[in-house]
Amino acid sequence: MTADPAKPDVRPANIRFSSGPCAKRPGWSAGALDTGALGRSHRSKIGKGKLKQAIDLTRQVLGVPEDYRIGIVPASDTGAVEMAMWSMLGARGVDLLAWESFGAGWVTDALKQLKLDDARVFQAPYGELPDLAQVDFDRDVVFTWNGTTSGVRVPDAGFIPADRQGLTICDATSAAFAQRLDFSKLDVTTFSWQKVLGGEGGHGVLILSPRAVERLESYTPPRPLPKIFRLTKGGKLIEGIFEGATINTPSMLCVEDYLDALGWARSIGGLEVLIARADANLAVIEDFVEGNDWLENLAADPATRSNTSVCLKIVDPDVTALDGEGQAAFAKGMVSLLEAEGAALDIGAYRDAPPGLRIWAGGTVEKSDLEALMPWLAWAFAAQKSSLKKAA
Length: 392
Description:
The protein is of the alpha/beta class. It has two domains: about 30-265, Type I PLP-dependent aspartate aminotransferase-like (Major domain) (Aspartate Aminotransferase, domain 2), CATH 3.40.640; about 270-390, Aspartate Aminotransferase, domain 1, CATH 3.90.1150.10. About 35% of the residues lie in helices and about 15% in strands. The protein has a seven-stranded mixed β-sheet with strand order 1-9-8-7-4-2-3, with helices on both faces. Strands 12-13-14 form a three-stranded antiparallel β-sheet. α6 packs parallel to α9. The mean pLDDT is about 95.
């Protein structure tokens, strides 16, 4: 009988590898947060000042052009994407791109909720991208930059023409602060605080190009808009949204947490260092996968592999011989073992994705923690494989 594998000697110092909410910045503590605005109105001088500071620092760290508007909106990234879709779509035909769960959600909303007459869908299975060459940018286009639940991203914005006639609406929630977003090719960009910088959830960020503002001011959608979706009044953009006068009441504690994360990002060198940290973290996982034939990256093309939400599939023949339920149970067993041993939390594949593992590798994660995690993956696989053989 095969002996159970020996456990590694070293555990990660921070075992939080969730893909959302994501790990806090290194050294984070609640005591680092300024509480001066707590219990104050978000419309007060201090409240609006904090919100405006968050907008200004977002522009600075991400390199958002000065003529683009940045607004803090309710309901996380979902709220930001929905605001754009409900307010702007319908003026012309739309191409919808999906290769994972959240992109598929925008397709459902466009077809079943907005009931758009002229909509084309370009869909690919988990691990792949659709044929981007088929997209018509004389139409509006809705897509995710980084597929959080598939680990597949667009390599760059080269597939988007500069002279497009339609708008590009980009869900960039697990890409912003970890990947290079070409804002000249993006008319609507959205993300949420709880992703790459590890902020608290509940708030979204909506970034609009001048072309997006022109659409809002020239097009009245043929549908009622809930109050929290309304970005114009009397045919003009509500500028206050983009100066810190939010549509609904924000959590000032969450704002402080985001300011703390932005301050940390600036202190380490800004966007380029954040990207470099995520790339180095991805390399740790890639090296491990290369040396272990039981594991593969879900994204087959290296150019499309995410450096934040790294999705892996188990390809050991004894596991792939199991039915879908058995494969899912094997992966979940590994995840449970790692949590029980205090080696990793929340690294199971997304519920709609193929069975496997999903490890967050964004810039708030320390490379040393991923290096410590890798032997534990090998241990958990061996332990599950041993149990599988004993059961047989």
